[in-house]
């Protein structure tokens, strides 16, 4: 008789531990990385590359009875400096690094990425001296990330196996084009990166696209329709039956559907307010200066990303038109 009683492997909740690491930005505060202490030992996000962050990571691992070399796998939610800066460190200690391929532009900065960034700023009407300042901050920021020697792509829906459990990658683009959350179904736990946060708003950040990428709107195929993607991802994350959401910053979230709904309402209100300002035709940079006159330094880029994202979505929704002007693209309400 054939043995039909062989046990099925039933996934069990994964032991996921939080370690908080300092960042150099007071407005951002610490970033949370997560250790899955089960074979293969996995680190979700890595913190920024500073001595303080490295010490905090090593201390946090030690408290779990682990060292850097015990980490076999790094899963990145996205390639912003506070999340991937030390991935190269853990890679050098022997781990494999995985991320969504749409994050490679930020992590590796190929030629199309650098050209696309300049192009996006020019089209937004950013004056050359302010563009140079942005470039300066951009270059400065690169020191906060170690280079990666290799990485493996993760796709939406991909299951990452552990001994006795698994994580499923869920692609939630918007804040970043290749943003992934990691879902432990057995534990009803979602590690959400910067897609869902309490206390800090995850802006849809401007992203250049390689030619032919489908994430661009018809009127601007060289950059992602970040807010449109973000709103769709918020609707998608509401379908995930999570009992707890472990974010990249701030407190653990119990009511993630309400957090997502709050963001959606905020953005819809902002779209209406912004459309009201477009009567005479303005560039994104002009809108940015009107709405955020006190914003300085790198925050100008974040504010501009926010404005650009809303304006592009207004065009896609048929509420505004856009045409090239002498000092940037001009958006007008219809
Ligand atoms: Zn981020
Ligand atoms: Zn972050």
Q: Outline the low-pLDDT stretches.
A: none
Mean pLDDT equals: 94
The CA-CA distance between the termini, in Å, is 75 Å
Helical/strand content category = alpha/beta
Query: Which small compounds were modeled alongside the protein?
Result: zinc ion
Order of helices and strands: EEEHEHHEHHHEEEEEHEHHHEE
The percent of residues in helical segments reads 25-40%
- What percentage of amino acids are in beta strands? 15-25%
- Main sheet specs: 6 strands, mixed
Overall body shape: globular
Evaluate the radius of gyration: 21 Å
Strand order of the largest sheet: 1-2-3-4-5-6
Number of helices: 10
Number of strands: 13
Characteristic terms for this protein:
five-stranded mixed beta sheet; binds zinc ion; alpha/beta; 13 strands; globular; 10 helices; 334 residues
Kindly summarize this structure in a few lines.
This protein is 35% helix and 18% strand.
Structure description:
With 334 residues, the protein is of the alpha/beta class. 35% of the residues lie in helices and 18% in strands. It is built from ten helices and 13 strands. The protein has helices at 51-63, 81-84, 87-92, 104-108, 111-123, 128-142, 226-238, 256-276, 284-291, 299-316, and strands spanning 16-21, 31-36, 42-44, 73-75, 96-99, 152-153, 159-162, 165-171, 180-184, 189-193, 244-247, 320-325, 328-333. The radius of gyration is 21 Å and the shape is globular. The protein starts with 15 loop residues before the first strand and ends with a strand. The model has no long low-confidence stretch (mean pLDDT 94). Bound molecules: zinc ion (ZN) (2 copies).
């Amino acid at each position: 008789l054939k043995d039909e009683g062989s046990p099925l492997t039933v996934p069990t909740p994964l032991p996921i531990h939080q370690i908080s690491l300092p960042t150099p930005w007071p407005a951002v505060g610490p970033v949370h990385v997560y250790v899955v202490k089960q074979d293969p030992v996995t680190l979700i996000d890595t913190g920024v590359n500073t001595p303080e962050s490295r010490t905090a990571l090593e201390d946090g691992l030690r408290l779990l009875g682990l060292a850097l070399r015990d980490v076999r796998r790094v899963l990145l939610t996205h390639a912003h400096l506070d999340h991937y800066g030390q991935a190269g460190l853990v890679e050098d200690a022997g781990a494999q690094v995985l991320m969504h391929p749409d994050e490679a532009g930020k992590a590796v900065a190929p030629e199309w990425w650098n050209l696309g960034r300049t192009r996006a700023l020019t089209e937004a009407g950013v004056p050359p001296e302010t563009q140079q300042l942005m470039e300066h901050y951009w270059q400065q920021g690169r020191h906060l990330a170690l280079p990666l020697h290799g990485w493996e792509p993760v796709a939406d829906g991909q299951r990452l196996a552990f001994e006795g459990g698994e994580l499923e990658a869920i692609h939630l683009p918007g804040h970043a084009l290749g943003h992934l959350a990691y879902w432990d179904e057995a534990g009803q736990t979602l590690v959400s990166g910067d897609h869902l946060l309490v206390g800090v708003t995850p802006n849809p950040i401007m992203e250049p696209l390689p030619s032919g990428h489908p994430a661009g709107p018809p009127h601007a195929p060289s950059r992602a329709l970040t807010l449109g993607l973000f709103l769709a991802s918020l609707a998608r994350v509401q379908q995930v039956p999570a009992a707890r959401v472990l974010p990249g910053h701030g407190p653990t979230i119990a009511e993630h559907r309400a957090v997502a709904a709050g963001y959606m309402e905020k953005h819809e209100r902002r779209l209406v307010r912004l459309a009201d300002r477009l009567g005479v035709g303005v560039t994104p940079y002009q809108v940015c200066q009107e709405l955020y006159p006190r914003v300085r330094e790198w925050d100008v880029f974040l504010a501009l990303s926010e404005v650009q994202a809303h304006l592009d979505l207004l065009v896609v929704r048929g509420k505004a038109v856009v045409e090239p002007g002498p000092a940037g693209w001009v958006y007008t309400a219809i």
